[in-house]
């Protein structure tokens, strides 16, 4: 087994001798190098348990040497101790990103701490034998040439920037984390972002607690002036809205007695969809050397694109949320999510068959009302009316498919289907009939002796639900015979004097909380199959037992074609309820059929109008 070694990399022979004397009691072979290249070559080819390295090396720094060792699977277990002997900018940032195991200040006063750290690291090492494969000079040179000062910073910074992708969904969070990343790199006292996007300004700052409030204010004033100088000329500066101002603080040791900002720089953020600036201030005089300025320019160039991505993403999300909020007044969010979730035009135009309860609501005689009112008043009233109706529809789990003039097409089961879609539809219709009398009609002029009323038709059946239209315009809607039949039933409400008319498909789904009355069997225009229609009401509003029994007997005789007997029972029913429109319709029909019976009577009346 090859003997495990300790490598010391230090260009100064004097410091090498000092370290050699400090490590005199350490067991193991200690090998010294005065340059990073030879040290890297040796470590790649030998089992080394510990590297002790200065950060001041040639041809590349100790930071780069540590990074190359920790990034290589064959040498990643090697413990690395980096030391420095004078203050250096960026040291903490570099050390953290190289994954060095220890990083400390080394001079005549810290030798004890130095030895303790070496012993601690040696106590953690695993005695191992490297795969001692010979590494060529060419391979080593290629590896080392990757570690120039700028390239190393760029690599490390981009690696850190990649981690910022986690915050793209929230621009404020992204800017906050960028500020905390910057303070690790540059270790100054104050930073600030100004972002002008969609006519509003965001300002995010990170400030050391060591700075006085007056310094903060002065920094802010100067930064604001520089930022506003980049705002497009066609925008009035006085109209700028600083709608979001975030201030974060961090602890920083005071270096000088007088903490006054002595160095200041600002940079434009590179972007297409927003105007942004980055501002940085330091207490240290002449802090910004050519090296720092190059790094800051590189930083601003890269983060501009990242901030732009976040702003665009946030803008899209906000627009989507506003759209959902607007349309959710009429359509459940499930429909909107369904539409937004579709991918590709082909899929958008695909519908699917579903069992749906269809509700058609129409204001009686609204054409006559519109003729004697101004368009403005009509629209204002309709907005109020629709608001009340839609609230009831949504409360019961339905969705508004569309508004057709003063009519409403509502669906139950189009997006979320319930076991009781029919009952929900009927409950909605009954609540609408109760609310219609409470809606303020003061904006309207109503015809003399006219009362605002609505008619509602409900049917349940299969429809095609989906995004229907063309590539230029798509509507989420339903089509099918069930929609047409619901519309026909609504038009019959006035003829039969029933506020709500339902089909037999709906009646079969109702429980005992509702009461129904058989109105007729009709063959609506365009249909050959007859449909039984019913009036529906709350149980407590049901007809008297005497009337219900009489009208039921009358309907049985009518369907059988016993016109005269049926006529007598309808007359008896009118004696109980003289103003019942449906009874009068059937009584008159019996009288007519008694004198001229219909051919091939099957109990259904064929309607010739819609």
Class by alpha and beta content: alpha/beta
Helical content stands at: 40-55%
Overall pLDDT, averaged?
84
**How many H/I helices?**
20
Global outline: elongated
Q: Report how far the terminal alpha carbons are from each other.
A: 99 Å
- Tell me about the largest β-sheet: 9 strands, mixed
* Low-pLDDT stretches: 127-133, 135-149, 343-349
Would you count the extended β strands for me? 19
Radius of gyration over C-alpha positions, nearest whole angstrom:
42 Å
Please report which band the strand proportion falls in: under 5%, 5-15%, 15-25%, 25-35%, 35-45% or over 45%. Answer: 15-25%
Structural overview:
With 610 residues, the chain is of the alpha/beta class. 44% of the residues lie in helices and 23% in strands. It contains 20 helices and 19 strands. The protein has helices spanning 13-22, 36-45, 62-71, 91-98, 111-124, 137-145, 149-163, 171-186, 213-228, 290-327, 333-341, 345-348, 366-371, 375-395, 421-435, 481-496, 504-507, 545-560, 563-576, 581-595; strands at 5-9, 29-33, 48-54, 79-84, 102-105, 190-197, 200-208, 241-250, 263-268, 275-282, 351-363, 399-404, 407-412, 454-469, 474-479, 500-503, 514-523, 531-538, 605-606. Strands 11, 12, 13, 14, 15, 16, 17, 18 and 19 form a nine-stranded mixed beta sheet that branches. Strands 2-1-3-4-5 form a five-stranded parallel beta sheet, with helices on both faces. A five-stranded mixed beta sheet has the order 8-7-6-10-9, sandwiched between helices. Strand 14 and strand 15 form a beta hairpin. The longest helix is centred in the middle third of the chain and has 38 residues, at 290-327. It starts with a strand and ends with a strand. Mean pLDDT is 84; it is low at 127-133, 135-149 and 343-349.
